[in-house]
Amino acid sequence: MAKVRLIPCLDVDRGRVVKGTRFLDLADQGDPAALAARYAEEGADEIVFLDITASHEGRETLVRDVERTADALFVPVTVGGGVRSAEDAGRLLRAGADKIAINTAALERPELIEELADQFGSQCVVMSIDAGRPGPGPDLEGVTDRSRGVRWTVRSHGGRRETGRDALEWAEECVRRGAGEILLTSMDRDGTREGYDLELLRAVCTNVRVPVIASGGAGETRHLVEAARTGATGLLLAGILHDGSRTVTDLRAELAESGIPLRSLPRDGVGTSARPAAGESPGIEREIRTRSDLDRVRFDPLVPVVTQDYRSGEVLMVAWADREAMEATLDTGEMHYHSRSRGELWRKGETSGNTQRVVLLAHDCDADTILARVEPKGPACHTGEVSCFGQVAASGVAGLLRTLRARRAELEANDGSADPPASLSYTQRLLGDENLRIKKIGEEAAEVIHAILRRSEEDVVAESADLVLHLAVALEAKGTDFGKVLEELERRRRA
């Protein structure tokens, strides 16, 4: 049996999480960002975020909600609702989504699946299928004459409209067109807490070669066990969590006791395991996400904290922290340290304004040193230097970015002339001439391709370095931090 993911689902209507039965009689359940953070802390493997009304007026609100939610998480986020084009999908991916779920728009124009798969990769495309037994029902629109002899039909528009399309055939077509995952919701079971439609689930899992997420009807642990044994590799959870009767931690423990393999085993109320399973990242248990994770750290009574810019990798400073400081850091999301000279807690930037937003905390193999990856606001050093180690720490990408910023500042001091004097460097001439930048990026890209196909490894490295340099210059000239490219790569790695 493949490892199973527990996936809380946030059905969002106008910026609030709601829950009903068969997508009707919706009741408010809370703020999406707060709920997502809570479920992630309890051990959720992923979060699904669905705008179930997807009104035109609410589109920008959805993007902001996705940004707020994704910023607080280190688990993948799937977002869907009203996505009708690659532009819609790109906007949500830039806002922090890792995968995009589509439904009605793909039923109306199946080519959309191929467009998204071609542009973003199949791993980003989740096909959401709302399926039920044929029949109009009291709240459904649509015909049923085409549904004769079909065991399950597909519904659109948030499950409100009957299409008459065979659900199994549609699932197979979606995979052929490039969908990398199926989110299968039983409209007959949704919100009932009577268990997943195992017959429907088994039929789809048997007929497609991609992961299937079971949705609609989870009410107790045995329902999750049944779905996992039927073939689902993802278990969607909503009402069972929103009402507070169960937690992700509870469900993980009970599934493990039932012999269901999970992505990671529960530990101290957190979803990462103290000892990673075969094939998983050997360092994941070193991440510090909650106060209980601090139990592993050897405060004596202080530990050194190595603070690093999460985008460039540059070491900014080394300071000391006790447990109080680390608890304050976790509670606020901003770095706190212990001042040995004053013998008290201090928040970085409380007087200077040069704060440090926490991106990741982890301890080393001996649990006697903490690594803090942060987003700095202003310099780390009291001297005004970016790093307490000065330029020495700025090697690799960090050193490149520092140099580019310095060259740009020099050029701006020269009024940013597009025709700078000959005394300026090649980099400054690039920064001052957009046409030259674009021309050189094209030339260097062609050289990289030629080197890969025809030349030595040494040439490949040299030409690749030229391309990266010219790309970094172009981004600096545009005012776009090259570190954001690295940040995006890190987001994709985590996904």
TrEMBL record:
Pathway(s) per entry: Amino-acid biosynthesis; L-histidine biosynthesis; L-histidine from 5-phospho-alpha-D-ribose 1-diphosphate: step 2/9; Amino-acid biosynthesis; L-histidine biosynthesis; L-histidine from 5-phospho-alpha-D-ribose 1-diphosphate: step 3/9; Amino-acid biosynthesis; L-histidine biosynthesis; L-histidine from 5-phospho-alpha-D-ribose 1-diphosphate: step 5/9
Stretch forming the signal peptide: none
List of catalytic residues: D11, D130
Reactions catalysed, as given in the entry: 5-[(5-phospho-1-deoxy-D-ribulos-1-ylimino)methylamino]-1-(5-phospho-beta-D-ribosyl)imidazole-4-carboxamide + L-glutamine = D-erythro-1-(imidazol-4-yl)glycerol 3-phosphate + 5-amino-1-(5-phospho-beta-D-ribosyl)imidazole-4-carboxamide + L-glutamate + H(+); 1-(5-phospho-beta-D-ribosyl)-ATP + H2O = 1-(5-phospho-beta-D-ribosyl)-5'-AMP + diphosphate + H(+); 1-(5-phospho-beta-D-ribosyl)-5'-AMP + H2O = 1-(5-phospho-beta-D-ribosyl)-5-[(5-phospho-beta-D-ribosylamino)methylideneamino]imidazole-4-carboxamide
CDD domains the record matches: HisF, NTP-PPase_HisIE_like
An MF annotation (GO) of this entry: imidazoleglycerol-phosphate synthase activity
Region (Disordered): 264-283
Record Pfam families: His_biosynth, PRA-CH, PRA-PH
GO biological process, one term: L-histidine biosynthetic process
Region span, Phosphoribosyl-ATP pyrophosphohydrolase: 397-495
Gene3D superfamilies: Aldolase class I, MazG-like, Phosphoribosyl-AMP cyclohydrolase
Family affiliation: In the C-terminal section; belongs to the PRA-PH family.
Role noted for this protein: IGPS catalyzes the conversion of PRFAR and glutamine to IGP, AICAR and glutamate. The HisF subunit catalyzes the cyclization activity that produces IGP and AICAR from PRFAR using the ammonia provided by the HisH subunit.
Subunit text: Heterodimer of HisH and HisF.
Name of the featured protein: Histidine biosynthesis bifunctional protein HisIE
Organism, as annotated: Eiseniibacteriota bacterium
